[in-house]
Every structure is written in C-alpha cells, then in structure tokens.
Amino acid sequence: MASTTDTPAAGARETHGFQAEVRELLRLMIHSLYSHREIFLRELISNASDACDRLRFAAIADSALLAQDPELGIRIDADAGAGTVTITDNGIGMTRAEAIANLGTIARSGTREFFRSLSGDEQKASALIGQFGVGFYSAFIVAERVEVRSRKAGAAAEEGVRWESGADGDFTVETVTLPERGTAVTLHLKADAKEFADAFRLRSLIRRYSDHIGFPVRMRKEGEASLEYEVVNQAKALWTLPRSEIPAEDYKQFYQYVAHDFTDPLAWSHNKVEGKREYTSLLYVPARAPFDLWQRDAARGLKLYVRRVFIMDDAEQFLPLYLRFVKGVVDSSDLPLNVSREILQQDPEVEAIRAGLTKRVLDLLGRLAKDEPDKYATFWKEFGAVLKEGVAQDQANQAAILPLLRFASTRESHDTPTVSLAEYVARMQPGQERIYYVIAESLAAARGSPAIERLKERGLEVLLLAERIDEWIMGQLDAFEGKRFKDATRGDLGLGTLASAADRTQYDAELKESKGLLKRIKDALGERVTEVRVSERLKESPACLVLGENDLTEQMRRILAATGQKAPEVHPVFEINVGHPLVKYLDAVSNPAEFTELAQLLFDQAALAEGTPLANAPEYVQRLNRLLVRLAAPAAPAA
Q: Model-level pTM?
C-alpha cells in the first residue's frame, strides 16, 4: 500500500491506495449488489457489535477501559436533509495504524483467486459475494463517500483518527481529537439511496437484520426533536431465548447476521445443555460453500461466548475439521473468561463440548437427510466432499457418518442421482455379500470402466467414485451393515454364489483353452505384470489391469510423488477377454516379434483405460502406427 508520506507528523493527512483485492471487492459490490443494498446496515451494525464485544473482553483484564462509559451500545442517526446515516458505537475503537490496516486491506488467504474467478460475470458475483463477507465495504453500496472517526479505548483524546474515501481507489487518514472512545461511520448517501436516510426505513431494517444482537441499538424517538434515544432492537442474544419463543424467520435472520450471508440456512440446531456441564449452542448448516472451504488455513469455527461475554470469533476447537462449514455460536458457563486459543486446545471441558456439538451436527444432518431429502441433496452437492473426510478423521463417529454419505452409481436415475449405503444394501441381489465400487478420474471414466462390465451385465449395482479424496476414504472403510466394501479393480471380485454353475463351467473351459495364450502373453510382457489370466470382469473390452488388494493405485502414486516420496513399483495382473476379436486376432499371430508388439499394445490400452499414464507414449504411438500399416497393407492398390 502506497502513501504520500513515510513518517507523518502527528495530525498529518495522508493518502493511501487500497489493496488490489479491496478495489476489486468495491467494484463488485457497487455494480453487483444493487438488489441487496439494505445489507449494508446489517454489516455495519455487526461490526459495531463486534467492537463492543471486544472491548467487554479486553475490560476483563483492564477494567479501566470501561470505567468512563460502562454501558456498551450502538447508535444510529439519520439526517434526511443532509442525506447521511451515521452508525456509532462505544466499543474498542481503532488507532491510526489499525484504521489504515483494517480499512485498506483484506487479510484473507485466497482472496485474489476468489475475485479472479468472479471477474467478468456480474450475475455470478451477485450470487457468490456473500460467501466472502462484505463487512465494512458494504457501506459503498449506498454511499458515495464514507467517513470514519475512531478512538481506541484507553487512548488519549488527541489520538483519534479520521478516515475518508469515495471508493475511487484511494483513502485519506489523519489524526484528530475525539472526546469519546469508539467508532462512528458516516455514510454520505448516493442520490438513488436517499431512502436509507429515512428513520422509519432504518428502524424496520434494524428489526429485520439486527434484532437479536447482544447490544442495544438506539435511535432518536419518533416524532420528537429532542436528543433522547430509545432502543429499537430486542438487544438480547437470540441463543439465550427459549426455542419456543423464536420464530423460524428470526433464526434465519440471525444466521445471516452471524454468517454474513444473503441466503437462508438449510437447517439449524438450538440446544441448551445442563447438568455436569452447562453450555448453549446454536448451530447452522449453510446452503452453499464459502469460497475458501478448501483452504486449511482459512478462518473457521464458532463464535465463542463465556457467560454471555464474547471471547473470540472462529473458535475452531469446538468442531472437527470435517465440519468446518458449520456456522453458529457456543456459549459456555464453565470456561474461564480469560480463556485463550492455547488453553482451548488442552481443556478437557472443550473436548466434552466438542464431542457433544459434533454429535449434534451429525444428528441434524441425519434428520435433514431423512425428512428433507431435497435440502440434503443441496447440502451434499456443496459439502459432501468435506463430510467424507470424517470417515478417516473421526473413527468414533464413523458409524454416524456412513449413513450420510451419498454416491453416484450404475443404477442412478434423473430422480435419484445419488444413492445412500442403506439404499444400496436394501436392493442388493440375493447372495450378494459385497458392496462394489470403482474409483476413476471422473464419473464418466468410472461408469465406463472395463472392470465393471460383467458386474453391470449381472445387474449388480456399482458405486462410482471420482473425487480425489475417495481413494483415501474408501481405504478406511471395511463394511456397512455387515456387507464388506469391494474395489472392482482389485483382486478377486468375490462373486461367490452370484456366479452360476454355467458361468463357472464357461470360465473353466476358457481357462483350459487359453493356457498357451496366457503363457505367451506373460512371456511377452515380462515383469510388467505379475500374472496373465482369463477375466471374470470383462464383457466388451479386450483387457484390463487388476491391482492386488494392497497395491497403490496410480492416483496414490502421483500423490506420493508430488510430496517427494518414492512409490513402490506396482506390477498388476493382466486380465484378458478371450472372446474378444482383438484377443482372438492376437492368438492367431505366429510371428514372435509381432505377437510381443501386439501384446504390449493391448497392455498399454488397458493402462490408458484406467487412467494410468504411459511410461513411453511415443513408443506406444509407433506400435499403433505399425499395426495400422499392417492392417491396411492387404487393401493397398497393386503397383
């Protein structure tokens, strides 16, 4: 960030340039959020509430910070004549340096990539900007100019700061004298936003968006010219109220306040635990994923309160990483007020609350899946890949997570694009003891995998997995409701009684007739394979590669290579479909060199079909070209 001076004298006025991400955020909001203009008030009141929360927390260690003005609150002033709205709080306030840092930059990882993904698509920006959280900069949706005056709690009156910008790429900052601590944000409204200078309009928005924040929001009494103010909102934290007194609309509005989201949540759970330990929780499942869901260092977690005193945002210790999408509040009566993140990591009370909240979220998802499948389908689309992590991360709750998983399958339809494990087991064939699945680079590749051709012919359903996390997750699973999981690309399919006597007779006959061919192919491929055998898997394809039960897949080998680890060599089983024309053609080739070349070509094709990159792609192309030349030679015109 550039400024006009390096070391300004006290009170000197500086001009700074906004961080590039801030400029992009301002552009998107000004041009994309016209239909959501009123949310500026929710965001600025939320910031004011946070400032009051932070001062109350700081006063635990230094009571003098609150001594002169102990009643924390927020004041809204509207001047229709001047076209201004001012939001004032007597919270923690800012120093000059903090104003420059907090109001000129966005300290969130991944913001540059996020804004790049929205560039050029204003409609998409309007739908997704709520994932980012607009915060202070929402002021510029309705204001042509914004002025901020702030004084840090505990600082001298002469150490106040005045910040101003017209969202034109720059802002100015100067040191001023302010008699009171806290922050006042004055919006000089645009010509088409004068409606927000109307006191009645502001009151209705406060009741809609900020009714249940924990501090009073005051405005001047209606119909009076005096300076007397009255409380407009309930000023009582929503989670402290009995559930029976809270309508669904209030829950939704509180979610938008907590999550800084435009949309309604999919579901929520409000509970008060009493007895050995006492805490209240209000947990929400959002309807869409935030842009930084996959950034492990992104802020996550719940708002933590202790006996109604705000302690910290993003307290990640109360939910496991695979539930990082959950928003909400936890208020404990047992934790100390001076609790820190380091203490939270070691406190057994926190572990007990974490276990309770984790179970609460999984129960909530279970009810959503059972009672509102359409909403659960939305949840799965947004957060399914994250929830899968819990299979490996949370062995204690694995039994509760498995019924929540959803899979594409070979029996999917337009009405039911995914299947649960319970649904899969319910429609298993008589005698079927395995839950079959296949993992590939994409759903199309999984659906077309040669390894499941015979399974599909027999009417056996196969789960189709194509996300990067799937191989790791499936490696953690053994069985569901007594039915063991089986990777269709590994080892013996374990068909058992599903293979009829006719199938076994046919297989034995093919094996007997093909012993010579199998040996010739094994000799041609050498150490590239551990075995060549007649396939029980193939119907349409000539060949496929089959891994051993403990062999690493190509995907895992690539992951290890990316981390600098050397993966052990894998020599798969090469299965052939002896009834396929290409295999019959190969069997008829008598020339040893030609046979070896064709066998290697067939092996490379099988590797490509399963997504394994060829060790020597040019050599494969040369082999293929030589085969095409030989096949075309008889049809060539005579000289």
A: 0.75
